[in-house]
Write a structure and sequence with these properties.
By secondary structure, this protein is mostly helical. The chain has 2 helices and 2 strands. 77% of the residues lie in helices and 6% in strands.
């Protein structure tokens, strides 16, 4: 095998048979490694999608909670105004 560098130097390297000739189980081992990495990548992608879905649900829940708090506050204000109005009306009738 020939190896060169940026300066133009070329060297010849002799590889041993164990590096140049595939071993009997090498193809199956490499295929197994690729299969494991493919499954790992799919699992990582699924986990990332699940995390994003949780974030979106959390944001929606927070938004709903804020809306509900606003409705409760508005309801309380409405009830207070109705009570004040009823008291004022009662006071005006008694005059």
């Amino acid at each position: 095998m020939a190896v060169g560098d940026a300066e133009g130097t070329v060297s010849l390297v002799q590889l041993s048979d164990s590096l140049a000739v595939p071993q009997a189980n090498e193809r199956a081992a490499i295929a197994g490694m690729f299969e494991r990495e493919t499954k790992r990548e799919k699992n990582l992608n699924a986990n990332q999608r699940e995390i994003e879905a949780r974030r979106q649900r959390h944001a929606r829940n927070a938004e709903l909670s804020a809306e509900q708090a606003e409705k409760v506050a508005q309801s309380t204000t409405d009830k207070t105004l109705q009570a004040v109005d009823a008291a004022f009306t009662q006071m005006m009738r008694s005059w």
